[in-house]
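Risk register update: the risk of archive-format incompatibility is retired. Evidence:
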Amino acid sequence: MKKILIFRAVKVVIEKAKELGYITVVIDKDNELGGKELADYYKCISFEDLDGCLAYAKEMQIDGVVSASEFSVITAGYIATNMNLPGISYETAMLCKNKYEMCKVLEEKNVNAIPQFFKVMNVDELESIKEKLKFPVIVKPNEGIGSEGVTKAENVEELRDKTIFAQENAPTQNNTTLIQTFISGQEYGVESFVYDGTVYVLGIMKKLMTPPPYYSELGHCSPSGLDEQLENRVKELVTNTIKALGINIGPVNIDLIITKNNELYIIDIGARIGGNSIASHIIPATSGIDHIANTIKVAMDEPVVIGSIKNTAVASIILTLTPGRVKSLPDFTKYYDESTVSIACKLKEDDEILEYKTCANVYGNIILRGSNLDNLIEKALYLKERIDSEIIRY
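Archived output:
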């Protein structure tokens, strides 16, 4: 049997790989994730230890590699390149983790460009760019993930504090900060898949977002609600962006903003499957395509069939919950009916619920499918409030 290396002990990915008949080899830097018990082989190694991960991959004689985490995209590319396995190259992976370099490439290739973007290593470097900036600006870690460390600065006085905040909340040891023009508009998530030279846009999802200052996801809705012409422009931009960055295989997760004047701006790109159940539940529910299975198959050099892409209405709402310590949880099965795709909650008794600010405070979500998107959103929000009220706290 073939062996697949999976970065991050993500249960749905491990289960799907085993369902497809592969031996699962899992590397994670966190021993606390429960998915590791499902793996045939498991080892705790830091994703930053590229040579350590490569040595283990060679020892296990793996046949393919999949990244189920933004933090392991570079490591997966490093192993794919060094072992001559299907996957994006190490060079492309490095580019896709560096937001500033991605902006430069897209500008150079006339694909899509935020009006202004600068990087600084420390607050002292702000002196050299402050006269050039047009406010407001968005300030974020250059190698960040989700909304961690992301804030908005309205003026030079705020910019210093926001830059320090971005550096202190960077999820990696790289403290480089990216400063960009703040784009006002509606945010969308786009999940795509690259196979045999073709970019397939599997889903365009309207995002529900928190108000400032955190700009965090609250949920996703599909169909997007965009008219055909605008949706086609999104697909064209996404396709050109993926090709410009050299992503030639596998899943791609992109965030973009559409302004009130229908201008399109790419704001984030991940060369991996989308999180918050996008790849595992939302895309299969709305498109009819098993995105996780295809991601695994293409990594194992197996044929992939995309087929026709459906457009079923799906609403996803993140469980943003009242802070407190969990005394007991309700029976989640009582919330299920014919519209339920999934209700996921990773809390357990005695866990501390923190105020929702970033993806680090996501405790689960509700995903519903049906014929009327507005009704699904209303119902999902109602269920979230009901669940929140029925969690007993100390």
